[in-house]
Amino acid sequence: MSEHSLKPVTLLITTFAATYVLQRVANGWKAAKSVRDWPGPRSLLSDGSILGNALPPILYVAPGMNSHFINKFDLFQQYDCDVIARVSYWPKAGATIHIANAETLKLASWARQRFPKDIEVYAALQIFGNNIVASEYDEWKFHRRIAAPAFSDRNNNLVWAKTVDTVNGLMSDVWKNEKEVHVDNLLDLALSSALFVIGGAAFGRTISWLDEETVAPGHKMSFKDAMVCVSTDVTIYMISPNWMPGFTEKIRRVRMAFDELEIYMTEMVEERRIGKMERFDLLTRLLEENDHDEDAMSMRGILSNIFMFMVAGHETLAHTLCFAFALLALYPDEQDKLYGHIKSVLPKDGTLPTFDDMSKYTQTMAVFNETLRMFPPVTTIPKVSAEDQVVGGTRLSDGSKVTVPCPVGTMVGFSIAGLHYNPRYWQSPHEFRPNRFLGDWPRDAFLPFAAGPRACLGRKFAETEGIAIITLLVAKYRVEIKEEPEFSCESFDQRRERVLRTTGGLTLTPVRVPLTFRRRD
């Protein structure tokens, strides 16, 4: 092809590219004007896009992976307001209003019709079908009506009992009651512990540390293996749909685990339907509520909801425990305070604490809450404005009130990380101070489980398991950061940064938490 004949093609491509860029810029300009050019970062990629979250932070280009937690309240301080507007240009130009104002978030959380979930974000969670997390409006009401009663004190009592069994099994069967136990990464143990509790309290299926990996007749994997694989590798399953070839052994194994778990859950459902034994696990209670509802949920709906409870509860609790024990190891004075409190509350006759004793462990609850404040599992909650409205905010420099336009269709981010690090509500927010949760504290500025009608149903489940594990382990062991030669010269700040390093995922994830557990005399 001659140089002369290439010119029209080059001109056409150049014209198309220029038109596309100008259109993106024009759409971005319109988006900025729709929120009255409200202050906030401007970037090529949105913080809701895959690429925008996959790249490292690049000014004016990409927010970067885990940006909501890394920035915390910094961007709000930079733009002098607890409500900011990010404008992005690709893949779709638009504005996202981020809110770290407790009063506004409380109102918005209860105004579910005005700020519904951005369902597109949750589509990947519909693995077995729709569920309470990935639905909205009437369909969400239907799922909640059937699922909510399953989370009862009877189930929480079961959670406590299963947690006690799991922790005792860890200490006796895995650690062999050793005086000193070195753990290269607590995340592995925390994930297993949470999974064993979920197995018992959600499925009514006891799993222990010493379980043999036996495969039930008609199955290709054991129930334990299937649960571990599904819980650990759910992200792989989401990004490799069934129509995509299974190029690697890992992908094929994950797909098999999901198929096997579905078969196991179906078998358990059938077993519950013909069984007469009274049970209080989530699956049984969900089935009972469903059988009494005139608009009964399908089998896929039951499986989808139980799956969501398993994945959300397993990962969220395990990660929170890692951060909690890391903080206690970094701050020995706080650990001593907690141990003293636990010792004063534990039964004097040497018996194990029960669920009825849970409310006595106020210092443990304070540590748990402070951990959730500093490391919220979900750092931002994506919503969308269902109507033309305004949201209120506060100027940080002078405390004056402001209103920000929020047109219909505008993306809205409930910035949990920003709220939890807002110094207006939390003095010295970067410091680990569990005692801030004793006495009066700003409850509207603490949203690790969200708020309003869509608040997490499993909150008490998570609190029960977390309080039991922290209490039992701190009562028996002193927790320290594992000494490693390559880090012998690091400062406290360097150690803190290393041990508390996070990465993004379905929930905020610790990278590596190396600890030593020393048995108390």
Keywords:
521 residues; alpha+beta; Cytochrome p450; 2 domains; three-stranded antiparallel sheet; 11% strand; globular; metal-binding; Cyt_P450
Entry summary:
The protein has about 525 residues and is of the alpha+beta class. It has helices spanning about 5-35, 50-55, 65-70, 75-80, 100-110, 135-145, 155-175, 185-205, 225-230, 235-240, 250-275, 280-290, 300-330, 330-345, 360-375, 415-420, 460-475, 490-500, and strands spanning about 40-45, 85-90, 95-100, 180-185, 380-385, 390-395, 400-405, 410-415, 475-480, 500-505, 510, 515-520. The strands form four sheets. It has a five-stranded mixed beta sheet with strand order 1-2-3-8-5.
Q: What does this protein look like?
A:
By secondary structure, the protein is α+β, with helices and mostly antiparallel strands. It has two domains: 1-100, no CATH class; 101-391 and 421-519, Cytochrome P450 (Cytochrome p450). 48% of the residues lie in helices and 11% in strands. The protein has 18 helices and twelve strands. The chain has helices at residues 3-34, 50-54, 67-71, 74-78, 102-110, 137-147, 153-174, 186-203, 223-232, 234-239, 249-274, 282-291, 299-330, 332-345, 362-374, 416-420, 459-476, 492-499; strands at 42-45, 83-90, 94-99, 180-183, 380-384, 389-394, 401-406, 411-415, 477-481, 502-503, 509-510, 515-519. Strands 1-2-3-8-5 form a five-stranded mixed β-sheet. A hairpin with a 5-residue loop joins strand 10 and strand 11 (509-510). Helix 8 packs antiparallel against helix 13. The longest helix has 32 residues, at 3-34. The mean pLDDT is 92. Belongs to the cytochrome P450 family. This is Cytochrome P450. It is found in: Membrane. Keywords: Heme, Iron, Membrane, Metal-binding, Monooxygenase, Oxidoreductase, Transmembrane, Transmembrane helix. Heme binds at residue 456.
